[in-house]
Amino acid sequence: MAVPKVPPPSAVGQLAQILDSPEIAAFVSELEETRWTGRPGYPIRSMVGMALAKSLYAIPTWTRTVRLAREHAALREAIGDVPSEWACYRFTRKLREHGDMLASCLDRVTAGLRAANPDMGRDIAIDGSARGRRGAVAGHFD
């Protein structure tokens, strides 16, 4: 049996790629234009990186996300400045206030993925059982 010799991509590597994507760069620029206060705070790119890290690592709280970023050298390198948990909570409020920008960003990401993978979303397989023993459904959607 052949065993793959290439390790799977790390979550930090994926996070760095996402942060460097043109779609996220455009989102960061749009959010930077909403800053009106004289206090600069943390870089928007770092804040978006923290939000992505919280999601990629499926961490339930900002406190744990900030702690992980402070302890994880590669994650710190990908994100940049590690903000406080309070800055992360304020950024969450900002994302809610600018939900239209976030939705537009997600639309751009989806369009980019579809351009790179034209068959994305064509086939779907659903397993409705508790452990995959029965109830599997596969379908083809156009």
Could you walk me through the main structural features you see in this protein, from its secondary elements to its overall organization?
By secondary structure, the chain is mainly alpha-helical. The protein has one domain (11-140). It contains seven helices and two strands; from the N terminus they run αααααααββ. Strands 1-2 form a two-stranded antiparallel sheet. The model is unreliable at 132-142 (pLDDT under 50).
In short:
The protein has 142 residues and is mainly α. 57% of the residues lie in helices and 7% in strands.
Shape, principal axes of CA atoms: globular
The rounded Rg comes to 18 Å
Strand order of the largest sheet: 1-2
The helix content is: 55-70%
Largest sheet, if any? 2 strands, antiparallel
Number of strands: 2
Overall average residue pLDDT: 84
* Classification by helices and strands: mainly alpha
> What is the terminal-to-terminal distance?
36 Å
The tally of helices reads 7
Topology (elements, then pairings):
Blueprint: H1 11-19, H2 22-32, H3 44-56, H4 62-71, H5 73-79, H6 85-97, H7 99-116, E1 123-127, E2 136-140
Antiparallel strand pairs: 1-2
Helix pairs in contact: 1-3, 1-5, 2-7, 4-5, 4-6, 6-7
Can you give keywords for this protein?
142 residues; mainly alpha; two-stranded antiparallel sheet; 7 helices; 2 strands; globular; disordered C terminus
